[in-house]
UniProtKB/TrEMBL annotation:
PANTHER family referenced in this protein's UniProt entry, alphabetically: ASPARAGINE--TRNA LIGASE, MITOCHONDRIAL-RELATED, ASPARTYL/LYSYL-TRNA SYNTHETASE
Gene3D superfamilies hit by this protein: Bira Bifunctional Protein, Domain 2, Nucleic acid-binding proteins
Entry's EC annotation: 6.1.1.22
Annotated Gene Ontology cellular component terms: cytoplasm
A matching Pfam family: tRNA-synt_2
Domain annotation Aminoacyl-transfer RNA synthetases class-II family profile: ranges: 131-467
Protein name stated in the entry: Asparagine--tRNA ligase
Family membership noted in the UniProt record: Belongs to the class-II aminoacyl-tRNA synthetase family.
Length: 477
């Protein structure tokens, strides 16, 4: 007999016939009940087992974490919190989990502890819920763009260019590290490399996406990107997934419309499809909030926050207006910024971004028209010659979630910017050709997928929303 997924059993009303279920023991109690989970849902199915009549050698193998198979009758349950249960008449232990060694026990583990158990933490309710939500969000990303006729394309992972010019790249080489070929001047001779030049792991698929938008009109990438940034924050990973749409004939306003519509769509989708998991995460957060001092408690629950984003327009504010607000505000003693902003032209730190979103506007904010000097070379220069058509979307609890822009489509202006910013034109000869031949207005953005998952799940550390986080000094798993 083939086993049935637990989610299907829980939703079944076809009682009083024999079923088989396989999964992992979550808890067992009163010498009678086993809560079994197979990952198909946050809910466990209750298995009613006559422990007293189990052979002793079988009984001692039943522990939290053990993989078991049960066969029995599906019946309506009288117990609170569940509709069905299995009256078990046969139980088999498939894989034991010695409680003296198995780290995941039925109690609340700290997130720090679980980070050291990246291969096992997905067996907890919280991580099961987060990873199912992440999966549904991925699907929603594709669904949104596919339904709108965007072409999904795969940007290369190994590239020769540094799209952001931030110098945060991981080198890729096939050369033997213990015997690097050297040129006469002592530098490494990459011409002997498999790729014949210096190559890196991509920091963004944007430049390639632009080339593709110049033929396919609307494209998007959704793939891994890599940044060797030595920043140990709760918002940065060395390996993260980025969603990057790029659209021909779209200007900055169109770009903002697209980003806002897209974010609202995926949040709405996940609210509909992940009800149980989000309900669990909501309750998890509410119980954490209770332990905080009143002043630090959030004024909205997770579900309220998600619905708030759906129901309200993102506030669109120019960088210049934002600086005026930040300059004019006199934060009280406790809330003083570490970095005070006095000057137009300074880059915003995440504390400023969060101040604008959480304290001032109290809603998601789209900041636009940033000073050219603090943004990448490919953004379109405004008529003032000082600002570029950049936009960042800022979210409560997160800060920057999206970075985007209208691109500089004019060949001469682009060359001018590359020169001014010291960007290698020879290396980007192909990118310049996209402006030489059939250039057109276009825009796009990059949304860090994990920052979106952070917001949707209410988690606070980006290490907890990706299966195996890559951060400085951490690639054990
Ligand atoms: P930040 O200011 O937070 O360092 P950024 O401006 O360097 O971000 P962009 O180059 O604009 O980032 O990348 C686009 C998006 O990718 C960001 O808005 C963010 O959502 C996400 N992102 C950037 N760097 C990281 C990272 N190290 N880990 C996770 N997500 C990231
Ligand atoms: Mg950065
Ligand atoms: Mg930034
Ligand atoms: Mg950015």
């Amino acid at each position: 007999m083939k086993h049935t997924k637990i989610i299907d059993l829980i939703n079944s009303t076809n009682f009083l016939h024999e079923v088989k279920a396989k999964g992992w023991v979550r808890t067992f109690r009163n010498n009678q009940f086993i809560a079994l989970n197979d990952g198909s849902t946050i809910k466990n199915i209750q298995c009613v087992v006559d422990f007293e009549n189990l052979p002793a050698d079988l009984l001692k193998k039943i522990h939290t974490g053990a993989a078991i198979s049960v066969t029995g009758t599906l019946v309506e349950s009288k117990g609170a919190g569940q509709n069905v249960e299995i009256q078990v008449n046969n139980l088999e232990v498939l894989g034991e989990a010695n409680p003296d060694e198995y780290p995941i026990q039925p109690k609340k583990h700290s997130l720090e502890f679980l980070r050291e158990q990246a291969h096992l933490r997905v067996r907890t309710n919280a991580f099961g819920a987060i990873m199912r939500v992440r999966s549904v969000l991925s699907y929603a990303v594709h669904k949104y763009f596919q339904d709108k006729g965007f072409v999904y394309f795969n940007a290369p992972i190994i590239t020769g260019s540094d799209a952001e010019g931030a110098g945060e790249m991981f080198r890729v080489t096939s050369l033997p590290l213990d015997n690097l070929p050297k040129k006469e001047d002592g530098s490494i001779d990459f011409s002997e490399d498999f790729f014949g030049k210096t190559t890196n792991l991509t920091v963004s698929g944007q430049l390639e996406a632009e080339a593709y938008a110049m033929a396919l009109g609307q494209v998007y990438t959704f793939g891994p990107t890599f940044r060797a940034e030595n920043s140990n924050t709760s918002r940065h990973l060395a390996e993260f997934w980025m969603i990057e749409p790029e659209v021909a004939f779209n200007n900055l306003d169109d770009n903002m419309d697209l980003a806002e519509d897209f974010i609202k769509y995926v949040i709405k989708y996940v609210l509909e499809k992940c009800e149980d998991d989000l309900q669990f995460l909501e309750e998890r957060l509410l119980s954490e909030e209770k332990n905080k001092p009143q002043a630090e408690r959030s004024d909205m629950s997770l579900l309220q926050k998600l619905n708030f984003v759906l129901e309200n327009n993102f506030k669109r504010v120019s960088y210049t207006e934002a600086i005026d607000i930040l300059k004019g505000c006199k934060p009280n003693k406790n809330k003083k910024f570490k970095y005070l902003i006095n000057e137009w032209g300074a880059d915003l730190q995440s504390e400023h971004e969060r101040f604008l979103v959480e304290k001032h506007f109290k809603c998601p904010v789209i900041l636009f028209d940033y000073p050219a000097d603090i943004k990448a070379f490919y953004m379109r220069m405004n008529e003032d010659g000082k600002t570029v058509r950049a936009m960042d979307i800022l979210f409560p609890g997160i800060g920057e979630i999206v970075g985007g822009s209208q691109r500089e489509e004019r060949y001469d202006k682009l060359v001018e910017r590359m020169e001014a910013m010291g960007v290698d034109q020879e290396e980007l000869w192909w990118y310049l050709e996209t402006r030489k031949f059939g250039t057109a207005t276009h825009s796009g953005f990059g949304l860090g997928f994990e920052r979106l998952v952070l917001f949707v799940t209410g988690m606070t550390n980006i290490r907890d929303v990706i299966p195996f986080p890559r951060t400085p000094q951490n690639a054990e798993f």
